[in-house]
UniProtKB/TrEMBL annotation:
Pfam families: adh_short, HTH_1, LysR_substrate. It comes from Knufia peltigerae. Residues 6-63 form the HTH lysR-type domain. Keywords: DNA-binding, NADP, Oxidoreductase, Transcription, Transcription regulation. This is HTH lysR-type domain-containing protein.
Length: 890
């Protein structure tokens, strides 16, 4: 009889090792040391009498026997998990792990909000969230690796073997470059695209099947010239006129610099909730009607709700949301209950003068308070991000529409944080209508960042502009139909059809007839309470302080600001906090921007009948004494808001540690590497607003260029390049080393570094940035077998000195860091995957760590801009210079 001593812990270790592909990561996942996991895997192989895992230089891969084991191991572990959950369910308690997956392109459904609502009802349930392709998530549900998943599929997709519920069906639209010959069409038949070059996802993916099915149903061929794996790349290829894309309409709404055109017949994408046929109690509870009802509620809440004064119980449905009002309303309130991304919108208000359609000027103030979790050092902090968008409408003689002044500010308010608030302005002329606001994005980085981070913001702004311009004052002070103000293309962009347009005009006519000519008292933005009666009306309300009378009116409390505190504004004014008011002290000769030392309080509100005389920013608090900042940067202060670093070789070792160091310090990090499974956890930990994963091989210049073109706008301005990617192969004696290994190493360590540096140099010169090249002491001190490797590192050091000479006078800093003995995953690669040899190499040596090197990289980047470190050689205390070799006879 066959007896084994296989235990559950060994099965858990085997599954973790197969999924992680690496002993170190598998051990970390199982919360054990690597040696313990290695011992248990070896014991399991000994018990079963076969090799279960193939140890390769870069990864661990299951053998055929291992794959057979994994099928049963997953079933056993899943059954055990079900057993525990089912026993708990008998007593009415839902508990256990809920493994849920979602596609990255999910629109209209906030999975995090759903999980939060679900956990309130079932606090004993733990969550594990994965983001992947639809077909992968579907397979994982079928194999019981996931409990439930939200996937996007073509209508013809096979959902055999799982339970499912369709939550959403959205149209697919064509996206084209504005210069494309078909960009002006109101609607496109699929036949018009059969000869066009298309950009799409790879064949076999759920996203690609949507397109293939649409053309197949119409009996048409199509040409997919570019296959990509990121929606951002689809946008880039379309924007540059290389191809036409077919994407869900809500995703197209978030694209910038492209035109979307409806298709006929209209293909669709369906979003399904799928779960196992024999679900765990937690999965069953999530998939039941209550969870689905919550999904539906989140879907309908994605549209903004606009309250318009003067309407008596009128309600109308529009493509951009709802317009509601009650008689006597004075407050125009816009509530966006759901925006995509990990951030949760806490407040979003528009406050205007109630009689604005008879006024000559209109100011809309949009403020958003967003909570985001940031882990710095050991403690966890909550950082409140504040977004302010001001739209000022000013009537111009002879124009039916208004000039639109748009100003966005993004700031951070958190006790103890040092932050810089950046500002940007843009003008959209009346002749171009509301759609002209989209033209602000290419020229205004902050606006681009806002639209990138909040995909629904673009249509939302267009909707506000449409309503505002329709109510705006004309020379005759009367109602003007919407279609006389906007072109057909502009109406289509906002999303109004003929029925919705007719309804909107009816509502506007009734509003015009029912609103009295006299203006009402405006409403305070912070509390909703009426302002004092002596405030002149009509009036525009705005945040901040401006040039003008010393007796500025202050509305609201000031929290944490003691009387006497001095603030400096962007316009050079110094204001001092008094009891209940602000007093202008003096105006400096030159405007200045300062780092904010820990602001915690409300904004000031001033009412001024005249047009603003100058652009102003949020209040800056001036420190009364020297302070030690929590982070430093050697870059000019004008670059602080967009401090962005690109780090190559970020999947492990020095590169991964550098990503952590810069992200924790508030930088935006572009992490590059070949292994997406290594980069994605970095994005998940810090958020896609902080870390962007660019997956490519540095030796492939085409892939490198595509990745750089696909960078989100928020990551486009690179200040620092860290060339860390490197390879050590062919380290045998020269007479027996592999020439192929040498060539691969030279391509990685030299050619790729030079190519990327050359590509980014113009931008780095323009931004007065910096370059940090990671070399090695092997380029200085030779050792046996280090021939070609040491030569490549010597090139890096000499190339850096040459760059330093060429870039003299540009303000660009160039530094070479030459580490000595450091223990990282790179060491295992050098020993050809032999963990024992790697461990022996560093036994008792107390080598440097990846974190040590990352700290030095960050220190170099943090130096004042007038300092440059040319070369930085680092060794552990236990290491010294190599001695001369002597061959002795006899």
């Amino acid at each position: 009889m066959f007896h084994t001593c296989v235990n559950l812990k060994q099965l858990e270790f085997a599954v973790a090792l197969a999924e992680e592909g690496n002993f170190t990561r598998a051990a970390a996942r199982c919360h054990v040391v690597q040696s313990a996991l290695s011992h248990q895997i070896a014991h399991l192989e000994q018990e079963l009498g076969t090799v279960l895992f193939e140890r390769l230089p870069r990864q661990v891969r299951a053998t055929a026997a291992g794959e057979a084991l994994l099928v049963h191991a997953r079933q056993v572990l899943a059954s055990l998990r079900h057993l525990r959950a089912d026993v708990a369910a008998v007593s009415g308690e839902v508990r256990g792990l809920l493994a849920i997956g979602q596609i990255s392109s999910l629109t209209g459904i906030d999975v995090v909000a759903l999980l939060a609502a679900f956990q309130q009802q079932h606090p004993q349930v733990e969550f594990q969230l994965r983001v992947d392709k639809s077909e992968t998530l579907l397979e994982q549900v079928q194999s019981r690796a996931l409990d439930v998943a939200l996937v996007g599929l073509a209508p013809s997709a096979d959902l055999e073997g799982v339970c499912h519920q369709m939550l959403q069906e959205e149209d697919l639209v064509a996206v084209l470059s504005p210069q494309h010959r078909l960009a002006t069409r109101q609607r496109l038949p699929l036949a018009a695209l059969q000869e066009e070059a298309l950009v799409d996802f790879p064949r076999g993916t759920g996203a690609r099947r949507q397109t293939d099915d649409a053309f197949a149903a119409a009996g048409l061929p199509h040409q997919v010239r570019f296959e990509v794996n990121l929606m951002e790349l689809v946008e880039r290829f379309v924007r540059h006129g290389l191809a036409v894309g077919i994407v869900p309409v809500q995703i197209a709404d978030g694209f910038e610099g492209v035109v979307q055109v409806p298709l006929q017949p209209t293909p669709t994408r369906r979003v399904h909730l799928v779960w196992q046929r024999l679900p765990t109690p937690a999965a069953r509870a999530f998939a039941q009607a209550q969870a689905l009802e919550e999904v539906a509620q989140h879907l309908v809440q994605t549209a903004p709700v606009v309250l318009v004064a003067g309407l008596a119980e009128q309600r109308a449905e529009f493509g951009f949301g709802n317009i509601e009002a009650d008689a006597g309303e004075d407050l125009h309130h816009v509530d966006v209950a759901q925006l995509e991304g990990h951030a949760q919108l806490l407040q979003h208000q528009v406050v205007v003068d109630a009689g604005f359609h008879r006024a000559r000027r209109l100011t809309l103030i949009l403020t958003a308070q967003v909570q985001d979790q940031a882990i710095e050092e050991v403690r966890q902090r909550t950082v409140a991000h504040r977004l302010e968008t001001r739209l000022v409408f000013t009537q111009q003689p002879g124009l039916g529409l208004l000039d639109i002044h748009v100003e966005c500010r993004i700031g951070h308010l958190a006790q103890g944080h040092h932050v810089v608030v950046a500002e940007v302005q843009g003008i959209a002329h009346a002749a171009h209508g509301p759609a002209a606001v989209t033209g602000l994005s290419p020229d205004c980085s902050i606006v681009s960042a806002v639209l990138q981070g909040f995909p629904s913001m673009r249509r939302y702004l267009l909707s506000i502009l449409l309503v505002a311009s329709s109510f705006a004052a004309t020379a005759q002070d009367r109602y003007v139909p919407v279609e006389q103000r906007l072109s057909a293309a502009q109406l289509a962009e906002v999303g109004l059809d003929a029925t919705q347009l007719q309804t909107l005009n009816r509502v506007l006519r009734e509003a015009e007839a029912s609103t009295p000519a006299s203006t009402r008292a405006p409403v305070a933005a912070s509390t909703g309470a009426p302002l004092p009666a002596n405030v002149p009306a009509p009036a525009a309300m705005h945040l901040g302080l401006e040039e003008g009378p010393v007796s500025a009116r202050v509305v609201g409390e000031v929290a944490g600001w003691e009387p006497g505190t001095v603030f400096t504004l962007d316009n050079g004014q110094q204001w001092q906090v008094m009891k209940g008011q602000m007093k202008l002290r003096k105006t400096l000769q030159a405007p200045q921007i300062e780092v904010i030392p820990g602001i915690a309080g409300r904004w000031f509100l001033q009412v001024d009948e005249d047009l603003p005389k100058a652009r102003v920013g949020p209040i800056r608090q001036r420190s009364r004494g020297p302070t030690v900042p929590e982070w430093r940067s050697g870059f000019p202060r004008s670059c602080l808001m967009t401090r962005t670093v690109l780090i190559t070789g970020a999947t492990s070792g020095f590169g991964a540690a550098a990503v952590h160091r810069f992200a924790q310090a508030g930088w935006k990090v572009i992490a590059t590497g070949r292994r997406s499974e290594r980069l994605q956890p970095l994005v998940e930990r810090y958020g896609k607003e902080v870390v962007h994963a660019a997956v490519f091989d540095v030796r492939d210049p085409i892939a490198m260029e595509a990745a750089l073109l696909a960078l989100p706008p928020a990551f486009g301005d690179i200040d620092l390049l860290v060339n860390n990617a490197g390879l050590a192969q062919g380290t045998a004696p020269a007479q027996s080393a592999s020439l192929k290994d040498w060539t691969t190493m030279i391509d990685t360590n030299i050619t790729a570094l030079v190519t990327l540096t050359h590509r980014l140099l113009p931008q780095l010169v323009e931004r007065k940035g910096a370059i940090i090249n990671i070399s090695s002491v092997a380029g200085v001190y030779p050792y046996p077998g280090g021939n070609a490797y040491g030569g490549t590192k010597a090139f890096v050091s000499q190339f850096s000195l040459g760059l330093r000479s060429d870039l003299h006078g540009t303000g660009v800093r160039v530094t070479t860091i030459e580490p000595g003995m450091a223990e990282t995953e790179f060491t295992v690669v050098r020993t050809h995957g032999d963990q024992v040899a790697s461990d022996k190499l560093y036994t008792g040596a107390n080598p440097m760590t990846a974190e040590d090197i990352a700290e030095q990289i960050f220190w170099v980047a943090s130096l004042p801009p007038h300092l440059n470190i040319n070369r930085l050689e680092l060794m552990p205390v236990s290491q010294s210079f190599a001695g001369f070799q002597v061959a002795r006879e006899g």
